[in-house]
Specification:
Blueprint lengths: L5 H4 L30 H19 L13 H15 L15 H10 L10 H14 L13 E2 L5 E6 L9 E7 L4 E6 L3 E5 L5 E6 L4 E5 L7 E4 L11 E6 L6 E8 L2 E7 L8 E6 L6 E5 L7 E5 L4 E7 L8 E6 L5 E9 L2 E9 L6 E7 L8 E6 L14 E7 L5 E8 L3 E7 L8 E6 L11 E8 L2 E5 L9 E7 L8 E6 L4 H8 L9 E6 L3
Parallel strand pairs: 1-26
Antiparallel strand pairs: 2-29, 3-4, 4-5, 5-6, 7-8, 8-9, 9-10, 11-12, 12-13, 13-14, 15-16, 16-17, 17-18, 19-20, 20-21, 21-22, 23-24, 24-25, 25-26, 27-28, 28-29
């Protein structure tokens, strides 16, 4: 059962995802200190009280948010007003229902996200406000020192690709079908392109909403997942469809999904039939769930919370049963492994947990130290939320496995806005390198929207970027041997919300904005 506070605090710092998926900013009323000019001792006492109250009201919903997570202005003008609204203080910020569709408002009221009755007194709230305003840094904390990033990428040849005559690239999906040597490209304008190994268009479908995932079953048509709404919404309008012929373009397979961002297929209960597992990212409402035999009436909910971002199925404990690793975003940020107990039952172990505003964005397992146990490669950098300021804790991390699925952070590379990282042996030297992309562009260093990290051994990496990466905001990435020459290439997909975002880069002298950036590996 979900804790009674949980529904009120889900998106205190919520991430918009995926998908990669977006929240809208707001301008709250200025906060005012209810107590006039306290003495120094009184201020110290009130700050201590404020911390205790913050721990009381926040830790029931997520890890305690330390003041250092954001600067004073961000706390004062954005985070605290949002927190106050979720604690039932109606005048803490602007009306949260003002710009919502009627159905979204109905769902929020049913969830009691913004309580009608305040959960704390006005005096208690003033202590919490004073604590964060006093203890937060005046400015966002600077990035930690890291290895220099070369602005040349000698191992790869870069080429921008545009598939449609649109002024604003909006790539939402990249997935390679190795059986047909075709790349599937999803677009925010509700289209799916298929290109061959020369990146020439071979097929095109129009669908109901932005595509976010696809798989390629044997002897069957591709199955495509659409998100329902790329913008934040709690309306369950996602679909799993099949891509048919030009005369019958799509067939609805499963509908009414809660803003899904990923699906994967496996026989989870080992009954000989395929099951389907969904990341229902949602917004305020969402869930991680699976359908036994692809039948919606045979639903099994693993986690009844929003924010399921990425899953991976593998046998983590070597008992010959498929387990599930999931990355959870939104307020409940962390990584869990669901161990298969047989007969469709799972036991959850939380292996990593992070504070809100951490902005987790992607995860995959890989054995970095060759000890036979899966480690975790994780990115955090989702920053389109209530605290859209540079964060020194955003970047790429490796967590090493002790052999019992206990993970410790062993390596960190700071990178603003990191959205995804892939571990592959790009230079064919027997170890894992890393390719990473950033969606939230650092305008001072836009070329660092892509970073290639060449493994030099013992978790030492040499960093490279390319000037061509400055021409996009990279939301998606796929790795495969596109040109069939024996090494792994990369394709990056760019997503801009509107022309206004392009203008920021135009002022930097960037005039061309391809949908895709192809990085052809020259290693051979």
């Amino acid at each position: 059962m979900i804790h009674p506070y949980a529904r009120r605090c889900f998106l205190l710092f919520g991430l918009m995802g995926m998908l990669f998926l977006l929240t809208t900013a707001f301008t709250p009323k200025k906060s005012t200190d209810v107590n006039p000019a306290p003495t120094q001792n009184a201020l110290i006492d009130s700050v201590a009280v404020g911390k205790q109250l913050a721990q009381k009201y926040c830790q029931t919903c997520h890890l305690f948010p330390e003041p250092s997570l954001a600067d004073q202005k961000t706390w004062r003008t954005s985070l605290l007003p949002n927190m106050g609204l979720r604690l039932g203080l109606k005048d803490a910020g602007k009306n949260p229902y003002a710009e919502l569709a009627a159905e979204d408002e109905r769902i929020l009221r049913k969830l009691n996200v913004y309580p009608e009755t305040a959960l704390l007194s006005r005096e208690e709230w003033s202590y919490i406000v004073r604590y964060y305003e006093k203890e937060a840094p005046a400015e966002p904390l600077p990035q930690k020192a890291h290895a220099p990033i070369s602005e040349q990428l000698p191992q790869f040849k870069a080429l921008g690709i545009t598939l449609s005559e649109t002024p604003v690239p909006q790539t939402t999906l990249l997935k390679y079908n190795k059986n047909t040597s075709q790349l599937y490209v999803g677009d925010g304008r509700n289209e799916v392109y298929v290109v061959d190994s020369a990146f020439q268009l071979t097929s095109l479908w129009s669908v109901d909403s932005p595509p976010v995932d696809v798989d390629f079953p044997k002897n069957a048509k591709p199955r495509l997942l659409t998100v329902g709404s790329f913008k934040p919404s709690d309306q369950p309008r996602g679909r799993l469809i099949t891509l048919d012929t030009a005369t019958t373009p799509t067939t609805i397979f499963i509908d009414s999904l809660p803003r899904p961002v990923q699906f994967t297929v496996a026989d989870l209960n080992q009954d000989g039939k395929e099951d389907v597992l969904f990341c229902g990212f949602g917004h305020n409402a969402g869930k991680l769930f699976w359908y036994d035999g692809f039948v919606p009436t045979n639903e099994h909910v693993l986690k009844a919370l929003p924010g399921a971002r990425k899953v991976e199925i593998r046998d983590f404990n070597n008992d010959k049963k498929p387990d599930i690793m999931v990355l959870m975003a939104q307020a409940w940020e962390g990584v869990s492994i669901f161990y298969n107990q047989g007969n469709g039952n799972f036991r959850e172990k939380t292996v990593l947990q992070f504070p809100p505003a951490y902005g987790v964005s992607y995860i995959e397992s890989a054995d970095f130290n060759n000890d036979g146990f899966p480690d975790i490669l994780l990115t955090n950098g989702d920053n389109w939320d209530y605290s859209a300021v540079p964060k020194n804790y955003h970047g790429i991390r490796i967590y090493l496995n002790d052999g019992k699925d206990n993970f410790r952070e062993a390596w960190f590379f700071p990178l603003h806005g990191t959205s995804k990282a892939l571990a592959r042996d790009f230079d064919n030297d027997g170890d894992l390198d890393i390719a990473a992309i950033s969606f939230y562009t650092d305008l001072e260093r836009p070329q660092q929207g892509f970073v290639y990290l060449s493994n030099k051994g013992k978790l030492n990496f040499e960093a490279f970027s390319t000037p061509e990466a400055a021409a996009g905001k990279w939301l998606t990435m796929e790795a495969a041997d596109f040109d069939k020459d024996g090494d792994i290439d990369l394709v990056l997909g760019s997503y801009f919300h509107n022309v206004g975002e392009l203008s920021k880069l135009i002022f930097k002298g960037i005039l061309s904005f391809p949908q895709l950036l192809v990085l052809t590996n020259q290693q051979k």
